[in-house]
């Protein structure tokens, strides 16, 4: 009877419980795979970086009429020569690139930034020789560029348009001028934004601006030339607390760096003064636009080096 009762019981399907467990794990695996795929497909912020293309003040290094170190060392090949102060911003994904200041070293700097292609825009700070004269390489004597975008203040643009040889660049459409208004952002593709702001400097022919450069992740301040922080109607410390990187005027480390020249005729903030003002600031402080006599050259760890990169 007992055996018959057992015989009448429903038969257990072999592996049924294991199949339920396997099905459960299969669902989990599918969920994890879908989640990972979703994250992989999520929009990624554009990949912008800022690149240091030049370090030196307008005359470069080695400098004319300089026979002492570091110029003598650079001429002898013991240390690298330095190009004139400039930075670039480039998108790693698309190759889009913007140049800040057109220096006498423009061909080499554009090569480093884009491989030789004319940048998608050139932002000028002012009308001193180390900051705009590289535009000459866009004319018919060299590449004969067509409508290369140049961003400049109204006064800077008027100077280029009214004075040769620069006026030929405008007249023959080698460059196309776009006016930047101080404190009005210029929105560029892929989340890049650039805002000019006026700074006090020796404005013989044009005014002078610095730039706030905003990427998807980080913000940078670029002020290669300014007379003195106290002559500005803004607070450099407050600005440095709103950005991640501050690339600031490091022309002189001390008044002695100017040699026999009258500092009242070529005022710049001393590097120790700038360091003191920015102690504890949010921004990482880096000096650029370094005079060939600057005694902090080669010693200070907060002087930029050509080829340095910063994420934006």
What would a concise description of this structure say?
This protein is an alpha/beta fold and 312 residues long. The protein has helices spanning 2-8, 16-41, 71-75, 106-114, 129-132, 154-162, 166-171, 236-240, 271-278, and strands at 48-54, 86-91, 97-100, 121-123, 148-152, 175-179, 186-188, 192-198, 209-214, 219-223, 245-249, 284-288, 309-311.
Can you tell me about this structure?
This protein is an alpha/beta fold and 312 residues long. It has a single domain (48-311), classed as Metallo-beta-lactamase, Chain A (4-Layer Sandwich), CATH 3.60.15. It has helices at 2-8, 16-41, 71-75, 106-114, 129-132, 154-162, 166-171, 236-240, 271-278, and strands spanning 48-54, 86-91, 97-100, 121-123, 148-152, 175-179, 186-188, 192-198, 209-214, 219-223, 245-249, 284-288, 309-311. The protein has a seven-stranded mixed beta sheet. The protein has a six-stranded mixed beta sheet with strand order 7-8-9-10-11-12, with helices on one face.
Secondary structure elements and their pairing?
Blueprint: H1 2-8, H2 16-41, E1 48-54, H3 71-75, E2 86-91, E3 97-100, H4 106-114, E4 121-123, H5 129-132, E5 148-152, H6 154-162, H7 166-171, E6 175-179, E7 186-188, E8 192-198, E9 209-214, E10 219-223, H8 236-240, E11 245-249, H9 271-278, E12 284-288, E13 309-311
């Amino acid at each position: 009877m007992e055996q018959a009762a057992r015989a009448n019981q429903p038969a257990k399907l072999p592996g049924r419980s294991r199949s339920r467990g396997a099905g459960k794990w299969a669902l989990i695996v599918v969920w994890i795979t879908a989640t990972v795929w979703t994250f992989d497909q999520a929009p990624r912020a554009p990949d912008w970086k800022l690149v240091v293309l030049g370090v030196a003040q307008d005359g470069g290094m080695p400098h004319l009429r300089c026979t002492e170190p570091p110029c003598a060392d650079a001429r002898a090949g013991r240390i690298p020569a330095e190009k004139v102060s400039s930075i670039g911003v480039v998108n790693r994904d698309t190759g889009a690139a913007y140049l800040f200041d057109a220096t006498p070293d423009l061909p080499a700097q554009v090569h480093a930034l884009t491989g030789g292609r004319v940048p998608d825009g050139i932002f000028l700070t002012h009308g001193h020789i180390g900051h705009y004269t590289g535009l000459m390489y866009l004319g018919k004597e060299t590449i004969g560029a067509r409508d290369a975008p140049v961003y400049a203040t109204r006064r800077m643009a008027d100077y280029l348009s009214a004075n040769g040889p620069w006026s030929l660049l405008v007249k023959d459409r080698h460059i196309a001028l776009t006016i930047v208004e101080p404190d009005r952002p210029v929105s560029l593709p892929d989340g890049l934004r650039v805002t000019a702001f006026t700074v006090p400097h020796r404005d013989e022919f044009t005014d002078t601006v610095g730039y706030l450069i905003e990427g998807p992740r980080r913000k940078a301040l670029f002020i290669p030339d300014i007379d003195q922080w106290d002559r500005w109607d803004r607070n450099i410390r407050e600005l440095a607390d709103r950005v991640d990187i501050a690339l600031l005027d490091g022309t002189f480390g001390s008044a002695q760096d100017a040699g026999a020249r009258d500092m009242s005729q070529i005022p710049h903030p001393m590097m120790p003064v700038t360091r003191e003002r920015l102690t504890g600031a949010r921004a990482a402080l880096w000096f650029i636009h370094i005079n060939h006599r600057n005694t902090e050259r080669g010693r200070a760890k907060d002087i930029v080096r050509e080829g340095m990169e910063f994420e934006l």
